[in-house]
TrEMBL record:
Residues 76-256 form the Bacterial bifunctional deaminase-reductase C-terminal domain. Pathway: Cofactor biosynthesis; riboflavin biosynthesis; 5-amino-6-(D-ribitylamino)uracil from GTP: step 2/4; Cofactor biosynthesis; riboflavin biosynthesis; 5-amino-6-(D-ribitylamino)uracil from GTP: step 3/4. Keywords: Hydrolase, NADP, Oxidoreductase. One of its GO terms (molecular function) is 5-amino-6-(5-phosphoribosylamino)uracil reductase activity. This is Riboflavin biosynthesis protein RibD. It comes from the Bacteria. Its EC number is 1.1.1.193, 3.5.4.26. GO terms for biological process: riboflavin biosynthetic process. It comes from Prescottella equi ATCC 33707. It holds the Pfam family RibD_C. The gene is ribD.
Amino acid sequence: LEPCNHQGRTGPCSRALIDAGIAAVHYSVADPNPAAAGGADTLRAARIEVTGGLLADDAERGPLRAWLHRQRTGRPHVTWKFAATLDGRSAAADGTSQWITGPEARARVHADRARLDAIVVGTGTVLADDPWLTARMPDGSLAPHQPLRVVVGNRPVPSTARVLDDAAPTLVLRTHDVGEILSALADQDDVLVEGGPRLAGAFLAAGAVDRVQAYIAPVVLGAGSHAVEDAGVSTITEALRFRRENVEVLGDDLLLNLIPRAQ
């Protein structure tokens, strides 16, 4: 990120670089915050060589993705994550869904959770699956960082639900409105929508999905629930289309990382 140019809890990075006698500064992305931007010009005025845009695409799609999105849009960066079979099922006809994907894919999910700010699920998922929604290490212990667990919907959550324990903080929102959910999470950078199909459909219909992580397992169920319902599409011309960022092989499973076509 471009060195900052403002006085916050610490002094400007641009001033510190000048004082340190740095001869050249190379950065990827200009700071989108008007209060902090301008560091490059300050450095150039001090006769420091400055290059911007270096590996900008890597930075935009990598560690700065969620932070930059919130700075530019005022709302969290939202990833919809789901696991499905080859025939698009997220659960069998009897409602069972553990485990569609293999251990490598599940380990990746926990590694991602350990970097997230919040995980959002609906009350239906809590009532059906009683998920813990924690980030766990390979040995099963809790990761040092735990995301905020967010449960949305109007049905009451039992006091015995695992999502209400003290392993991680939990926020219960009595709403189905995507705008209200995002407003409540306005201070979070990186938000994961993890379940279930109606909640995923609501975020898709609202145009509030910035990335899709689709874990596809080489499994066929032939019946059962789909990964998404009612995404606001009634005809093929209204289809929500995505483009591939990359594909990862995780054991026998594939992880498709996708972003909306408009991006």
